[in-house]
Write a structure and sequence with these properties.
Order of helices and strands of chain A: HHHHHHHEEHHHEHHHEEHHHHH
Strand content of chain A: under 5%
Strand content of chain B: 5-15%
Shape of chain B: extended
Number of helices of chain B: 6
Largest sheet of chain A: 2 strands, antiparallel
Oligomer: heterodimer
Structural class of chain A: mainly alpha
Distance between the termini of chain B: 77 Å
Structural class of chain B: mainly alpha
Number of strands of chain B: 6
Distance between the termini of chain A: 23 Å
Number of helices of chain A: 18
Strand order of the largest sheet of chain A: 1-2
Largest interface: A-B, 125 and 105 residues
Number of domains of chain A: 1
Number of strands of chain A: 5
Helix content of chain A: 55-70%
Largest sheet of chain B: 3 strands, antiparallel
Helix content of chain B: 40-55%
Number of domains of chain B: 2
């Protein structure tokens, strides 16, 4: 227990400390303090004119079309292209669609196993490229939003922002992380699978490849898509306790830094500290719950002569330490990362509920850039509710939040449960879903619920027993991921665009301060009430029902 | 303003930097600094590749220490967990078979890691207790004292991160290689 507490403190506390200077650096970067780099980037894409929210959004759409189109074509033709030492064949078009949508939207939901599906060119040139660019797109969108809300006249230039994020934030960090995990044992080679003869004389073929580079950006960009099928539970993707610790740090580092970056660009670091505190409180609650629930032993072994003094070990790796299962499950779903350090399908029922709750809320630091954007929606809601309670015009940083903005906020917030619960209902009622389950009863329902939660949260983890490489799953989740990515970026930009068009008022003594504990508590409660009440009925049918029925 | 042309230029630039440049740099680094690790930690004995230090392989002979159960049957091209709920009767059924293979009884219960499948199905380690549990069988099959096997296990057992992960574990392939060396 002491070792677990120590590990949690080091990973989360250490990352929080690192996030402060990184956020400061990112704010300076997006404020144009690095003129030399900016000149280079401007030359690269040709021009860096100032854009309003519509132009910024159109640029974002344009690059997303290029991303999706190029990777779709590359994945569909991989069997004709080089860097394919293991001779991967053609993939089905519905899987290509799902995968291209999944990586374009920063989700990295994987309905395949990398080592038996994609060539090295498809993995690096298609998927890893998207892991950089989609993450950079999210960070750029946050910079634009912060500029608008902070009172600047325009939102900046999208093409400049994407290059700043990709080349000056993601790339240097990825080089460091890739170097560390390569030394720890993640392979980095273009050689095909290794063939060995085991001590008992059998032939074993061992998949390998250029994994270290891939895994580093997978974690840093809250992408989460693994090089190998079982993601970071695979010994070659996560070979040691330390590779594991560095990967967990990489998962939350940039999402944490994004909060500080936001606070600095709007010129209100104290407000950022309150938001950071609310996020940290939510994280602490989820962590406590997950660690507690996962310390219960594997129920299936309860009547057997098995010595169970270490909690539930099904789906877990010994070298990563006992705490990794619940800790990683919380971190990967608090952010929109979606890589896994233990198999979520085999977590105890209530532990499995915690990552689902993380994806339902989706802003406990959240995805790079987009997590803070999601939080902005909740902030607007909290400010509005607080304003109504005391009978004053709701204001956020001097911007009057009125009917038009609130309609947009609600549209974005409601779309999330709508996509999750609507999709779950459809697939739970039809063979599209029920014919693909790996577990029966309530746990089977949880598999469907998890898959749609993961798609709509752009998370990408899964209850991986689900047989999800079917046309129905590939198409449905592909569409959900695309809607769930673009809507929560464009709607907030539109809201800020609308706020920018109005005259900003000065804050007075009567304005609700967004820098104090009162606001923090308000925000916390709004998130909890909105999130918890929306999803409670679904949770009761899945993990809670399984717990009540089967755990003794 | 035109958005297509800048997008295409961004595509080319980011591809060159983040895919070509970054991959080349990391390949050069890993192949120079840690070539054994970079190529999959393949262990060679007498010039022949016998396995990866990081990948579990199947052991069924009583002469060897056995690894954790594997959902894909130790197929290192199809790594996967069981993805069964911890409440699943399928897990109970699988565990009963494992327990029968080890001959565990209520008086001599088996450590949980030998019964529970790992996340990727290729966990190269078992717990120190799991190895000691098998020492008697291995010693009998090899015709050597159990104490020798136990001593070997104790020298090979390590904790993954000192005080951060105090539970001691053993690499099964390395332990079995050491057992074979001991015989010679």
């Amino acid at each position: 227990m002491l070792a677990s507490i120590l590990t949690i403190t080091l990973v989360i506390g250490g990352t929080a400390l690192l996030s402060w200077p990184l956020g400061k650096y990112m704010a300076a970067l997006f404020s144009g303090r690095f003129a030399g780099a900016d000149r280079l980037f401007t030359a690269a894409t040709g021009g860096a004119g100032e854009q309003d929210w519509k132009q910024y959004s159109l640029a974002l759409i344009a690059i997303n079309v290029v991303m999706f189109g190029f990777v779709f074509a590359l994945l569909a033709t991989q069997h004709l292209l080089p860097f394919n030492p293991d001779g991967q064949g053609a993939a089905s078009l519905d899987l290509v669609f799902n995968t291209a949508a999944s990586f374009t939207t920063n989700t990295n939901l994987q309905h395949y196993s990398g080592e038996s599906t994609w060539s090295y060119l498809a993995q690096l040139g298609g998927l890893m490229w998207l892991q950089f660019v989609s993450a950079a797109t999210g960070i750029a969108a946050l910079a634009a939003l912060a500029r608008g809300i902070g009172g600047q006249a325009t939102m900046g230039n999208f093409f400049l922002d994407v290059q700043r994020a990709a080349f000056c934030v993601l790339l240097p960090l990825a080089i460091v992380v890739a170097a560390i995990i390569a030394i720890e044992g993640v392979p980095m080679t273009l050689l095909g699978a290794a063939e060995v003869t085991t001590l008992e004389g059998a032939v074993q073929t061992i998949a390998r490849g250029p994994a270290a580079a891939f895994v580093a950006i997978k974690q840093l960009g809250t992408n989460g898509g693994g090089f190998f099928g079982p993601n970071s539970t695979h010994p070659l993707e996560n070979p040691s306790f330390f590779s594991n610790a560095f990967q967990m740090v990489s998962i939350i580092l940039i999402p944490m830094a994004c909060v500080w970056m936001f606070g600095r660009i709007i010129g209100r670091p104290k407000h950022a500290a309150v938001v950071f505190g609310v996020m940290a409180a939510l994280l602490a609650i989820k962590l406590t719950a997950a660690v507690t629930f996962e310390s219960a032993p594997t129920m299936a072994f309860a009547e057997l002569p098995v010595r169970q003094d270490v909690g539930n070990l099904e789906g877990k790796e010994l070298r990563l330490g006992a705490i990794t299962g619940p800790l990683w499950a919380v971190l990967t779903t608090a952010t929109s990362n979606g890589s896994v350090g233990a198999m979520h399908d085999s977590l105890n029922p209530l532990t499995g509920l915690v990552p689902m709750a993380g994806m339902w809320l989706n802003e406990t630091f959240g995805g790079v850039g987009v997590g803070m954007i999601n939080m902005f929606l909740y902030i607007a809601l909290a400010v509005f509710v607080a304003g109504m309670m005391v009978g004053r015009t709701p204001e956020y940083l001097g911007h009057r939040i009125e009917g038009r903005e609130m309609r947009l906020v609600v549209l974005a917030l409601i779309s999330h449960p709508l996509l999750i619960l609507g999709g779950t209902a459809l697939f739970a009622a039809t063979p599209w879903g029920t014919g693909t389950l790996n577990n029966t009863g309530a746990h089977g329902f949880s598999e469907i619920l998890y898959e749609f939660s993961s798609s709509a949260a752009n998370n990408g983890s899964g209850f991986e027993g689900l047989g999800d490489n079917t046309p129905a799953w590939n198409i449905a989740t592909g569409i959900v991921m695309l809607i769930a990515r673009l809507l929560p970026i464009f709607v907030p930009l539109a809201i800020v665009g609308s706020l920018m068009a109005k005259r900003r008022s000065a804050e007075s003594a009567g304005t609700l301060s967004v820098e104090g504990p009162t606001f923090g508590v308000m925000l916390f409660l709004v998130i909890l009430i909105f999130g918890a009440l929306t999803f409670f009925p679904a949770a009761a049918l899945g993990p809670i029902a399984e717990h009540v029925e089967l755990m003794r | 303003m035109n958005y297509i042309l800048p997008s295409l230029r961004l595509w080319i630039v980011s591809f060159l930097v983040c895919v070509v440049g970054y991959t080349a740099l990391m390949l050069a680094f890993a192949q120079t600094v840690a070539p054994y690790r970079a190529n999959g930690s393949i262990i060679e004995v007498g010039g022949k590749a016998v396995g990866s230090e990081l990948i579990a392989q199947d052991f069924t002979s009583p002469r060897y220490i056995w690894p954790r159960p594997s959902a894909p049957g130790y197929d290192a091209m199809a790594a996967a967990g069981s993805n069964k709920s911890p409440t699943s009767p399928d897990l109970t059924k699988r565990a009963i078979e494992t327990i029968a293979r080890y001959g565990a009884t209520p008086d001599n219960p088996i450590p949980a890691d030998l019964v529970a499948a790992s996340g990727g199905g290729l966990d190269p380690h078992i717990s120190r207790e799991g190895a000691l549990y098998q020492a008697g069988r291995v010693a009998a099959a090899r015709g050597i004292p159990t104490a020798d096997v136990e001593r070997l296990i104790e020298t090979q057992a390590f904790s993954a991160a000192g005080p951060l992960a105090p539970e001691r574990i053993v690499n099964v392939l390395e332990l079995n290689l050491a057992l074979d060396r001991m015989a010679r």
